[in-house]
Design brief:
Layout: E1 3-12, E2 15-29, E3 32-44, E4 47-57, E5 60-69, E6 74-85, E7 96-97, E8 99-109, E9 117-129, E10 132-144, E11 147-156, E12 162-170, E13 174-185, H1 187-192, E14 201-211, E15 216-228, E16 231-243, E17 246-256, E18 259-260
Antiparallel strand pairs: 1-2, 2-3, 3-4, 4-5, 5-6, 6-8, 7-9, 8-9, 9-10, 10-11, 11-12, 12-13, 13-14, 14-15, 15-16, 16-17, 17-18
Length: 261
Amino acid sequence: GAAAFSATICGTMDNPQVEGEFKVASGSLYGYSFRKANAKVRYSDQRIAVEHFQAEAFDGYLQGEGEFYTTDLSYNAHIKVDHVDASAAGQFLPGTIGRFTADLGIHGRGNDLDQLIVYGSASAADIQYQGLQVSKMDASFCKQGPSITLDYLSLGFPEGGTLGVEGTIQDGSKLDLAFYGDRVNLAKIAQLVPAADVSGYADFKGSVHGDLSDPVLQAEFSAIDGKLFQQPYKSLRGSAGGSLHGVKIDSFSMENGDHET
């Protein structure tokens, strides 16, 4: 985009020192549009420092600071994201509707995405993912190239219940995750997986390991007041594990009144 600036320049021709304020009314960066960008910029000793950066992007607001070294094209940045529309940032949040806030640290070098490190925290309220309504979301993470470390991801649902996930995804496909749920409405599972004919409220914990194409899952669960494939129950509990090749049920019991199945 077109920039307006005022700056002072001093020093020598081979090592100038520049300090000024830059403004861009509208423009784009790597294909993403922004508006009303402004920042204070200083250049000295092959280092560009950006302070008090502000802009409108993804139908929300960005602010932060950073530095860029011209010798090796490395950079560091601290960005705060406020009220960003997930649908406007679809590549990063596919299938998500709602608005997010985040506090991010960024470190990288040139266009090498394998060396790009993004870490920080994010939160949201009243969002939808693949049609699933979430009343509150909080997360802390670190993404290095194609790998992600998830310190925690916590989801709260409008009718009550929470779901948590933590662990790592290496190289975009190798899973090492733990998950847990507290009074989760099992109708949510049927909403995401129509073939799962189940309802009730469940507590569970478990883990997922292995390759994304064929993960191995192990879980313990208990549930109350629902139906499993049209069979009503008052309480249900068990443990199971398996993969796409098969499931092993270690224990299972289902009670409805005085009758146990």
